[in-house]
Amino acid sequence: MKKKELSRQQSKKILQCENVSVKFDDFLALNSFSFQLKEHELHFLIGPNGAGKTTFLDVLCGKTKSSAGKLLFKKEYDLSKMKEYQIARHGIGRKFQAPSIFPHLTVFENLEVSMKQKKGLFSILTASLSDSENERITNQLRTIGLTNEKDKKAINLSHGQKQWLEIGMVMMQEPDLLLLDEPIAGMTEEEEETTGHLLRELKKECSIIVVEHDMEFVEKYSERVTVMHEGSLLCEGSMREVQQNEQVMEVYLGRKEVPPYAATSGT
Ligand SMILES: Nc1ncnc2c1ncn2[C@@H]1O[C@H](COP(=O)(O)OP(=O)(O)OP(=O)(O)O)[C@@H](O)[C@H]1O
């Protein structure tokens, strides 16, 4: 893609959320939370436990319904009025923390059953693949770094490889927005680095929101960061800006989690 075209796309908004609230009985898990995302942006969502990060991802993919606010996707889809399957069909893909791969299918077959055109597990046994479908799977295998594992049963993959496979499976749906919840949890340092590079690759194809607690990882791979606290927006900016924000420091004081400013040596 030409540089000019890429920067034009980057400035387009794919997600506009204003004053979004989610109520569980009398408790406001999201409290008038506002958030915007551009096309091809890799955006990290951080905040202490219970800040509302997962709830926000749940609202975006339709798992949880908002009680107030505006949730506009690609300028035309009102997510608050759509069902989970409709949201997925219109381009929001979600990878949950626990892998949901098919353990007894091969890596290749896992990607095959996840393909947009495919109807599901049964079709893999009956339909043969076209050249272009084969090519799509081959390309995806290359992107997630599992070409050499393509014939391995998914159950025999390492923890990191399972996570990449699942990301690949979501990508086979060709989402415009990818939602990831703590993608590096339980990974080795080497696997973390591979995941960071993978995210940079994937943002060429879609926008990405990552919920993450590992501040070193966020510092290394983030462009923009949003800090949430008690269901609301605390601050937003580059990791450096966020690290220097006094409110952010206060919120993290006295908590178990590593504050964002602790990841930088000498600051
Ligand atoms: N289904 C639910 N019913 C009642 N309360 C809920 C429900 N889901 C989440 N909550 C509450 O909403 C708040 C926000 O939870 P959420 O999981 O979104 O936070 P989080 O920022 O993702 O936290 P963590 O980093 O620990 O995963 C928490 O206080 C949580 O207990």
UniProtKB/TrEMBL annotation:
Residues that span the membrane, as ranges: none
Highest taxon, organism lineage: Bacteria
GO terms of molecular function: ATP binding
Annotated ABC transporter domain residues: 15-255
Keywords, in A-Z order: ATP-binding, Nucleotide-binding, Transport
PROSITE patterns tied to this protein: ABC_TRANSPORTER_2 (PS50893)
Official protein name in the record: Urea ABC transporter ATP-binding protein UrtD
Species this chain originates from: Thalassorhabdus alkalitolerans
Phylogenetic classification of the source organism: Bacteria, Bacillati, Bacillota, Bacilli, Bacillales
